[in-house]
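Q&A FORM
Asked by: J.P.
Topic: structure of UPF0102 protein NEE14_010425

PROVIDED:
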Amino acid sequence: MAERNNTGKEGESEARAYLEKLGYQILHTNWHFHHYELDLVAVYDGELIVVEVKTRSVGCLLPPEEAVDRKKIRRIVAATDAYIRYFNYRLPVRFDIITMQKENGRYSVQEHIEDAFYAPIH
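REPLIED BY: S.T.
REPLY: Here is the structure written out as tokens.
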């Protein structure tokens, strides 16, 4: 379990560096509120960007973006709602997924999916 946690945290760190190089202003990393967590929260081009980072080692059978299922989306949206209320943000929100790949101890961005999902209506 510790290996998996380290892989996830290191993947998030690399995803953060990737976004910063693109000009995103990172507001929070691993923001927690009660039982909610947001991996990365940034501002870019007048939008609040909430990024879910999924890191997998080479050879993993499940594509990382498939781990963001309906239940996970609902939790991310609820956490984002809490975040917006807590910090009183009034920006449009975009939800992205960044998939990271770990190979031979190195991490690389596999895909950056902008507008990966929308908040469910109900």
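FOLLOW-UP: DSSP finds two helices and five strands in the chain.
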